[in-house]
Amino acid sequence: MTLSTATEAAVAPAVPEDADEVAPKKRLPIGAWLSIAWLVLVVFLALFADLLPLHDPNVSVASKAELAPGEEGLWLGADGSSRDMLSRTIYGGRNSLGIAVGAVTIGFVIGGLLGLFSGYFRNWIGKSLAALFDILLAIPALVLALSLVSVLKGDPVQAPDAFRLPTILILILALGVVSIPLLARITRGNTMAWAQREFVTAARAQGATNGRILFREILPNVLPAMAYIALLGVAIAVVAEGGLAILGASLDPPAATWGIMINDGKSAMEDAPFIMFTPIVATFLTVMALNYLGDLIRDRFDVRESAL
């Protein structure tokens, strides 16, 4: 039992013996189950795409370009290069979600640690980190990500392929750097609030080290807010990758992401709008599901945005 558990147990009111007096737990709304079901489906398809009976997403399989959905056995039709839209949507989702989750993982770990230190230590280190977060947040996220991608890619003529990072790794690093100050700022605000609680004071009075207080007392209470903003961060990263794709700074062709598919479908808006709308719908449903679950976590764990 941690010090926080012991302290809260000492001041907690007695639990009523009558089971009827105990407030029942709130059930998940239907929207939460629909969001979970959609995300499970997307993640399942992304993870096991290689085992599914799908066409190669980068190879032309249709007899003509811009084939309508349902023709020649292609459920979602074919794009302007006669490639299977279903395969490209699934593999594009794998790349889009992989980039987004990888980027937010970097922000979650690095930003979370920096936010904890900045919120707990009120000396010049904490103030310097807070100033750094403010500076990074002042830069438009898409501009910062585009700049980082350009720098990390370098000049293809001067930099040999053997010394160049894979493009997908460059995108993860660029969007990860963008997500660090956001997660750090949220973690810092919550750490500052929880560091003033009685159980932290009691732990400090009993001689607990700063490391124990940070990771055993404060971090478990800060995690709900971090999880809430991390889900939103994944949604933002998916949209940000789409913005980079429109600007020509995403994966190299013929690789697919939802952003690349949207960009490729712009030229066929009049003749074959489904080429563009298919990845748009997939992106919309995924972002909406992540936002809904993030808001649900905020409401369930009483994450107060005013304290962030």
Characterise the protein shown here.
- By secondary structure, the chain is mainly α.
- The protein has ten helices and no strands.
Keywords summarizing the entry:
mainly alpha; 10 helices; elongated
User: Which outline best applies?
Assistant: elongated
The helical percent reads 55-70%
Low-confidence stretches: 1-23
Number of helices: 10
State the major sheet. none
Mean pLDDT: 86
Record field, number of beta strands: 0
Distance between the termini: 28 Å
Q: Rg to the nearest angstrom? A: 24 Å
Residue share in β-strands: under 5%
Q: How would you classify the helix and strand content by structural class?
A: mainly alpha
Question: What does this entry show, briefly?
Answer:
The chain is mainly α and 308 residues long. Helices cover 64% and strands 0% of the residues.
List the helices and strands and how they pair.
Blueprint: H1 3-11, H2 30-47, H3 85-120, H4 124-138, H5 141-153, H6 167-194, H7 198-205, H8 210-246, H9 258-264, H10 274-300
Helix pairs in contact: 1-7, 2-3, 2-10, 3-4, 3-6, 3-8, 3-9, 3-10, 4-6, 5-6, 6-8, 7-8, 8-9, 8-10, 9-10
